[in-house]
Amino acid sequence: MANAKTSRKGLKICGIVTAIFIAILVIVITTLSLTIFKPKDPDITANPVGLRNISFSSLNVTIDMMVTIDNRNYGSFKFQNSTAYINYRGDIVAEVPLEEELVPARGKINITTSAVIEAEKLITNPNFWNDVEAGSLNMTSTATLHGQVKVFKIFKLHARTVSICSITIWIDTQSLESKCRSKIKL
Ligand SMILES: *[C@@H]1O[C@H](CO)[C@@H](O)[C@H](O)[C@H]1NC(C)=O
Ligand SMILES: *[C@@H]1O[C@H](CO)[C@@H](O)[C@H](O)[C@H]1NC(C)=O
Ligand SMILES: *[C@@H]1O[C@H](CO)[C@@H](O)[C@H](O)[C@H]1NC(C)=O
Ligand SMILES: *[C@@H]1O[C@H](CO)[C@@H](O)[C@H](O)[C@H]1NC(C)=O
Ligand SMILES: *[C@@H]1O[C@H](CO)[C@@H](O)[C@H](O)[C@H]1NC(C)=O
Fold it and tell me: Which residues line ligand 3 (CB under 6 A)?
């Protein structure tokens, strides 16, 4: 009995980590697409390229991923180093560093990043199993990007975008709902 229970818990954790990973993709894509100069939405895709450090003593999961940005605008965007954080009931449970990069006008670039999910902090949170029993986990994410937009090599604008997402992970269906809002300051 105890074993069955443990493995059910293991499966749930697996599903939750997967859901967090999907949440990370949503956040990275939202943050970048809001930041890179509009009129034409850039085409952004993110793909996991590998898992590292899945050790059950620490439960830190590192996911390498590659984000491809296809900027179809005539403006380039350069952003500075930043980190997106995912917060669960006051604890940071995942971090996604984004390294400074120039996204050229009408160009494509690949960005690689390593997202760290600290599942241990999640699981040891006193509310965690209650929330799992209740059927949902709520998280928020924040990301701030500082950068510079250049249009036709003439206009230079300093831009700062802050995006905040609220994420609900539904345990039973292992599905995800996210709502993001953002502010752009030029
Ligand atoms: C994770 O992996 C990296 C490189 O693969 C290693 O440098 C680091 O020490 C590992 N971290 C943990 C917590 O195992
Ligand atoms: C997990 O990762 C975090 C952030 O990188 C680090 O501070 C923490 O020590 C790691 N925990 C373990 C048990 O490796
Ligand atoms: C941005 O991060 C990279 C890698 O961590 C580092 O080499 C670089 O110096 C950082 N740039 C700034 C302006 O801090
Ligand atoms: C980005 O990665 C894709 C897929 O691996 C590759 O086909 C493409 O050439 C890369 N683009 C750049 C600009 O590195
Ligand atoms: C998470 O948010 C959803 C939607 O706002 C809500 O229905 C649910 O009860 C919340 N779950 C917890 C554990 O607070």
Answer: 81, 99-100
